[in-house]
Write a structure and sequence with these properties.
The protein is an all-alpha fold. It is built from five helices and no strands. Helix 1 (3-22) packs across helix 2 (28-42), helix 1 (3-22) packs across helix 3 and helix 1 (3-22) crosses helix 4.
């Protein structure tokens, strides 16, 4: 399997984990790991900044697949199979139309950055 196929599979698995996160029949522990996975995938801040040569992308290559694998381990197989099928449908026409699930992450990071700037400027 080449890198492009691996990246496509990772994209589908990430979407499937997000879909499983939203389901009511997903176990609580699976929701915790799924939430962490989706938050890390959407987060603009990485453990190692991307501008650092080689190491910057290494955390994306290792951490995200590890989080996805951990999430999948806790999601029941029948639920995961259904979520993967929905994820394939989601990406079938190119980019998904429902991108708004990234809004909470954007709001959290904007608030955090605003708080830091406020503390630096006024304290």
């Amino acid at each position: 399997m080449n890198i492009k196929q691996k990246a496509s599979e990772l994209k589908i698995k990430t979407a499937a984990v997000f879909i499983a996160f939203k389901r009511k029949d997903t176990p609580f522990i699976a929701k915790i790991f799924a939430g962490l996975t989706v938050a890390y995938a959407l987060s603009p801040i990485d453990l190692i900044p991307d501008f650092i040569p080689v190491l910057g992308y290494l955390d994306d290559i290792i951490v995200l697949p590890l989080l996805i694998a951990l999430s999948i381990k806790f999601i029941p197989k029948d639920i995961m199979k259904e979520c993967e099928a929905r994820a394939h449908e989601l990406w079938a026409g190119g980019l998904p139309k429902k991108w708004f699930f990234a809004i909470p992450i954007i709001v959290i990071w904007t608030a955090l950055i605003g708080f830091i700037i406020y503390k630096i400027a006024f304290c």
